[in-house]
Amino acid sequence: MNKNLNSKNQKSNIKGQMFAFFFGKERDFFIENLSLLVSSGLPILSALSAIRSEVRSKKMRDIISQIFSEVEDGAPLSRALDHSHIFPEHVVSLAKIGEESGKLIDNLKVIRAQQEKERNFRSKIRSAMLYPIFVFSLSIIVGVGIAWFILPKLAIVFAQLHINLPILTRILIAFGMFLGDWGFLVVPLFIIFLLASIYLIFYFPKTKFIGQSILYLIPGVNSLMKEVELTRFGYLLGTLLQAGLSITRALLSVEESTLLFRYRNLYQYLRESVDEGNSFQKSFLSFKKIRALIPVPVQQLIVAGEQSGNLSETFLKISQNFETKTETTTKNLTVILEPILLVIVWLGVLAVALSVILPIYSLIGNFPTS
Prior knowledge:
Blueprint: H1 2-39, H2 44-54, H3 58-72, H4 77-84, H5 89-101, H6 104-161, H7 167-202, H8 208-216, H9 221-243, H10 247-257, H11 261-275, H12 280-286, H13 290-293, H14 296-308, H15 311-365
């Protein structure tokens, strides 16, 4: 039974991730507007019809039409959302609890607030990575441009001068001559290969753990990823517990919604351990390298909240604390990465400059002196 449920959840989670990759904005648009329209007093069917008329993609319109048909036939909204297989488990659970408790509008507001938080978390990661990506991309474009268009001309000049070229110059000129002959074929293939590699390393579900491992090695980025994840972990668990979800269902929702494989393994372990009747304290002690994922003071806060019966408030406080830290880390990240990027760019410029200057210096040294 549990294996079948886990298999179903995994398949639904993979489908939801693939849908979010291509139509994530449309899904967020649906959730936000459904919450706003229902909160304003509009019946669910009227809200679904209004949202469907505004959605651009045919795929999302078909999904909303399916949800509309099921609700019109008398099915609960949560069941219709579940059958679409594109919404996270916690969205379906909150909708179901809201229907059972008569607080569907309140829970839809919680879902909307969570979606906004998720966007903010993703935006912080993207904004932090924008500067280094821009610098690296610009450096590669300039380097390829120099090798493609300038170095072949320098090769002709040096060949006519009949001088011995340094090894660095010969390597760069050979690369430039290669691009001069095959650049129109090699450069597009290289771009396709680069984009495919980025997708496989950072986005493909089965291999993106490689990209995450690379990001963990970058100074500053690893701290930001940890702080953003702990912010999301605290906020999501806190709001789900406040809305009435059990701790195991809340942990399952956090596990399925996280993008970091290290934390997904941790949440899975915590969920299984708590489901067996263990406390958070015992679960933390038995998980290897827990301190690298959740700092000791945060563990102590969670244990204290569990013992006092204030877990939801404790998780929300943890979220607020780390949200402030992420703001500071995001601002400081550019300052941390800037000297590293400058050194890398400087080394590239130095290599090109030496390859051009050394032959000229050698040629001037061969001139007879009076």
